[in-house]
Write a structure and sequence with these properties.
Shape: globular
Largest sheet: 9 strands, mixed
Distance between the termini: 62 Å
Number of strands: 21
CATH architecture of the largest domain: Alpha-Beta Barrel
Oligomer: single chain
Helix content: 25-40%
Radius of gyration: 23 Å
Strand content: 25-35%
CATH topology of the largest domain: TIM Barrel
Number of domains: 2
CATH superfamily of the largest domain: Alanine racemase
Structural class: alpha/beta
Length: 424
């Protein structure tokens, strides 16, 4: 399926380009491994979703956990995006990128007191509350500040999104949200708390969803709940439908922005409430690639390996989820095709970018591009094996800039110390 993001990555005379810049030129300048994002693709994906929901009042709150680079977030914020955050660090990044606090929603099951206080101080739009215990903590922290906290409850509709279990959040076995059957009691309790202002309802069932039916099933239950809540005297000004729309990694065919918006509006578009959407992957994934260089090729009997300078610490999705991401040579294909594993240098058998993949023959020094890497790539990176994290680059048209410098060895030990009086 062609997406706004995928159009930013095209070949010219056999060479892969990002917008109007050859990937080889970027890698020569910034080194590898490397994340490269297209500002054009980010804007196109956001605009497609914004247009799709134009018929109803709506706010698009970009899910910053998918890609939290300041330049990426600022690109979207300047087009009108709000931000969905799940920690004080994400809130800090959203504000640093220029997000309007009144367009920030705060999700997540484990909000600490200091995080709640920081969000209240910033003046965010609302908290998506995930338990009644959390509700009471927000009430207490807001009381200490002399504030009133705007909240929705994240309700768990017990709908199977038919996605990977690690990113499925709408089943009753999930840690997320409150069971929808308990929602009326939870809202009744919220109404008794002096420092709580109930403003809406929230539902998010998971990520990388490529079938509209789970969205429709969940929102049908939300629609019924909204009616019950209003009959009980609760004000429902906002309906947060979450995110979760999938992208094409292999053969998936996810709904378009228009199809997704139509399904949402069919269920809740006429309820006289502003719709909040929390897209992350569907905006950022296809707007980025991960670029890595071949170090060696190797054969163990009949098994072929391509060893690259990127690894599971840089891009963990294949190792963590068994995820497939398309990989291609940046330059001209050399013709012959082998079945091989594309692996990194981390000392784990699970360190791979691809397993048993048919791939064109490559040589030491060749560049490879991992597609759809703009979401949950760098944001999930680590320093495992004491590997400095990769650089990040943003491209627009014929220009590009390093928007996060490659970490140095000194960065790896920043903040650490050796307490001599505790050592023998």
């Amino acid at each position: 399926m062609t997406t706004p993001g995928s159009q930013a990555f095209a070949r010219r005379d056999g060479q892969l380009f990002v917008d109007d810049v050859a990937v080889e030129v970027i890698a020569r300048d910034a080194g590898t491994p490397l994340y490269v994002y297209s500002a054009t693709a980010l804007a196109a994906a956001y605009d497609a979703l914004d247009r799709a929901f134009a018929a109803v009042p709506h706010t698009i709150c970009y899910s910053i956990k998918s890609n939290m680079n300041l330049a990426v977030v600022a690109t979207l914020v300047r087009r009108g995006a709000g931000v969905d955050v799940t920690s004080a660090g994400e809130l800090f990044r959203a504000l640093r990128a220029g997000a309007d606090p009144q367009r920030i929603v705060y999700s997540g099951v484990g909000k600490r007191d200091d995080e709640i206080d920081a969000a209240l101080a910033a003046g965010i739009r609302m908290f998506n509350v995930e338990s009644r215990a959390e509700l009471r903590r927000i009430d207490a922290v807001a009381g200490q500040r002399g504030a009133c906290a705007p909240v929705t409850f994240r309700v768990n509709p017990d709908v199977d999104p038919k996605t990977h279990p690690y990113i499925s959040t709408g089943l009753r076995t999930s840690k997320f949200g409150i069971p929808i059957a308990e929602a009326l009691d939870a809202y009744a309790e919220a109404k008794t708390l002096a420092n709580i202002d109930v403003v809406g309802v929230d539902c998010h069932i998971g990520s990388q969803i490529v079938d509209l039916q789970p969205f429709s099933d969940a929102l049908a239950r939300v629609r019924s709940l909204v009616g019950d809540l209003r009959n009980a005297g609760h004000r429902i000004d906002w309906i947060d439908v979450g995110g979760g729309l999938g992208v094409t990694y292999a053969e998936e065919v996810p709904p378009s922005a228009d199809e997704y918006a139509a399904a949402v509006q069919a269920q809740v578009g006429d309820l006289d409430a502003e719709i909040v959407i929390e897209p992350g992957r569907s905006i950022a994934a296809d707007a980025g690639i991960f670029v890595t260089r071949v170090l060696y090729t190797k054969t163990n009997g009949e098994k072929h390996f391509v060893i690259v300078d990127g690894a599971m610490n840089d891009l963990i999705r294949p190792a963590l989820y068994g995820a497939y991401q398309r990989i291609e040579p940046v330059g001209l294909s050399k013709g012959a095709v082998l079945r091989c594993d594309i692996v990194g240098a981390v000392c784990e058998s699970g360190d791979f970018l691809a397993k048993d993949r048919s791939f064109p023959a490559v040589e030491t020094g060749d560049l490879l591009a991992v597609r759809s890497a703009g979401a949950y790539g760098f944001s999930m990176a680590s320093n495992y094996n004491a590997r400095p994290r990769a650089a990040e680059v943003l491209v627009r048209g014929e220009r590009f800039a390093v928007v996060r410098e490659r970490e140095s060895l000194e960065d790896l030990v920043r903040g650490e110390s050796i307490p001599e009086d505790l050592l023998e």
